Amino acid sequence: MELQTLTIVDARKMLDTGEVTAVELAEEYVAAAREMNTQLNAYLEIFEDVHEQAQKADEMIAAGNIFPMTGIPIAIKDNILIKGRVSSGASKILENYVATYDAYVIEKLKAEGAVFLGRTNMDEFAMGGSTENSAFGPTKNPHDIARIPGGSSGGSAAVVAAHMALASLGTDTGGSIRQPAALCGVVGFKPTYGAVSRFGTMAMGSSLDQIGPITKTVTDAELLFGTIRGHDSRDATSRPDAYFSESQQGKRIGVPRHFLKEGTDEDVLEAFNESLKKLEAHGYEIVDIELPNIQYALATYYIIMPAEVSTNLARYDGIRYGVHHDGETLLGDYMQTRGKGFGAEARRRILLGTFVLSSGYVDAYYRKATAVRNQLKKEFEKVFAGVDFIVTPTSPTPAFKIGEKVNDPVAMYAADIFTVPVNMTGVPALSVPMGTVVRDGSTLPIGIQFIAKHGADTALFAIGKDFEKMK
Fold first, then answer.
1. What is the pLDDT of residues 196-242, one digit of tens each?
2. Cα distances (angstroms) measured from residue 283 to each of 250, 286, 372, 467, 470
3. 0.90 exceeded by the pTM?
4. Number of helical (H) and strand (E) elements in the chain, helices listed first
5. Euclidean distance between CA atoms 397 and 400, whole angstroms
């Protein structure tokens, strides 16, 4: 099997015709993962029971009980719970925590007979854009191991790009699926907020988090999304299926040119403009749009997100579950546990979030940020009344070197400038490879981001497939 070119569509045909068994397919990926993971550190754990999982998938296929994901080898981000397996969120505070139930998306994949290869590395509790904040060491970009793969789903993107998994699941709070997908040269999809249940996923920013697929092609992303989507009564933010539009894809694209010069590398912008010309040549209409408050999205995000982090991570106190460190008093227990259990970036965001929610500052920061967020949602709604898509680069730069921005968190946060507005407004977005640029002799992938209105997830797959075909 040529893992470099194999897709879910290809694997599905091979499995269904008997050209290959699920066991053979899984063993190919396990062998590749074991060979390359020592170099990339993309997997935190490769599961020991992959063979047994694949055997069950083969039994389903033999019985004619076949679904899109039956026998498909998938990697899972380490903040998505799989019953009976360690789920650490790449944090020392949950290093030995064993999940007691399955996340909603895992239930759906298990029902279809998917094969779970292992759990992937990530920024601790999904806090970061480089996968350098993992308690278990950084993941490296398969295109240049001196560089970051993006984050926080860097491990999930790297395993697909390095052909160590056929597909993977990540989570996206401010771009954490799309940005690493772009920097690793694969496809990443962030669904409409509420399209995929967050039940059984470690909460970071509850009003921002969303689970989505990372794959080699847009069609594969659509197939995986089709399996994991759906209403779930256990998630209060889960939307009913009727909310999502199956209407025909439009051809009118809006480009916020006033926003694109914010720190975007010249060659990335040049590749983006060339991509717009290709879209125009294939019948798409390109128009300029204005989003006056989008310039405040990043600053607003870094108020709202830490506030939610501070609240969500309060549960990790060393008392209920996870790591415990003794102090001289109960308060000492908390301080020792959280001080030693959380990494530097997690502590930074907890402190920032606690500050913006504190008495005397909640009005000055948090409530103003919420007001800006609401205004941004209205601006997106207004723009989508006149266009079918908004298009930007996924990231303003290609992958930077490991350690390059560790001591400059503001520069690190700025890498999310094009992805954050999507999470702030809850709309869906798709990142598709749009070419490469060269840095220090390394050829590095970059991505283009397609954004649609709430519920128009299927329209993104249509334009994404069109773009893949353009030469």
1. 999 999 999 999 999 999 999 999 999 999 999 999 999 999 999 88
2. 10, 10, 35, 11, 12
3. yes
4. 16, 11
5. 8
82 belongs to a structural domain: yes
- CATH classification of the domain holding 182: 3.90.1300.10
Q: Token pair of 150, please?
A: 């993006």
**49 pLDDT more than 90:** yes
CA distances from 427 to 302, 371, 453, 456 (A): 19, 18, 6, 8
| Residues carrying an active site annotation | 77, 152, 176
What one-letter code names the amino acid at 47? Answer: F
User: And the tokens for 273?
Assistant: 């403009």
* Domain of residue 85, residue span: 8-243
Is 382 a residue whose pLDDT tops 80?
A: yes
Angle at 146 between CA 415 and CA 272, to 5 degrees: 40
Which pLDDT belongs to residue 227?
A: 98
Task: Give the pairing of strands 389-393 and 252-255.
Answer: parallel
Share of the chain above pLDDT 70, in %: 100
